[in-house]
């Protein structure tokens, strides 16, 4: 990632279609569909590609307003959580980007309709702020509340290529079984704390929901030219005792690691072995029973020497401390 990007852009995109996000409503999408806002990857552009309504854009574009008002799109977050910042990306929109944008948030249970959402009280996350065309526009968010929906308003009209909502997922403990869950899952509250290399893709992909559809939806490092190895550390959803580890190299064929091992620790204690160094196969979903289950709060995956992994799972049970952490994280943000 560019060093010019804010640090919070390293956090997961809570709105991404890949993690379950959805653009549930927009008041206008005549030129380009609202669903493009949360597509993975950067926007694409092909000059002189005209459809029946004009130049085709990989983004959301509304018609030119001839009356007072503004245009809006509502996004249901795939991973409800605390928002650290948003990116309003106007890539390839030059003479047709909005001059201003604002963002609001909402936290609600269930699956309300667009009409029901419109009737609720929204909270300002980003005030009306100027935008640059054909640019990523970064806006930090100070709120520590948990949000389930965000609303993007463009003033008065125009086109936005991508809308990224970076932050920390906060799981609702009412929907989790503390006796059996993926302790390393992003949607359960786990997060990446550090990694040796993320040249090709983010390590947060490792703990994202679902299976990777392509190689680019995993974590892949640059080729090493030394005697070291690559690694990533995960703060688990809460203190727990694992029983099953899953190391998934699906889609990684000529670039899967040759071996991997797992270590863990409780708090700031010493690291101990969870899974010994084990040979891996390319394009394979490996599952291993944990030989000697012990309580841990942090997990480290070492791959040898480098390469790519699609997913990392660690199934087990929360301890009493882990349950307390999970509940406190939820109640402190609601």
From TrEMBL:
Residues 20-169, 189-317 form the Allantoicase domain. The gene is alc. Keywords: Hydrolase, Purine metabolism. Belongs to the allantoicase family. GO terms for molecular function: allantoicase activity. GO terms for biological process: allantoin catabolic process; purine nucleobase metabolic process. InterPro entries: Allantoicase, Allantoicase_dom, Galactose-bd-like_sf. This is Probable allantoicase. The keyword ATP-binding does not apply. It catalyses: allantoate + H2O = (S)-ureidoglycolate + urea. Pathway: Nitrogen metabolism; (S)-allantoin degradation; (S)-ureidoglycolate from allantoate (aminidohydrolase route): step 1/1. Its EC number is 3.5.3.4. NCBIfam families: allantoicase. It comes from Amycolatopsis endophytica. Signal peptide: none annotated.
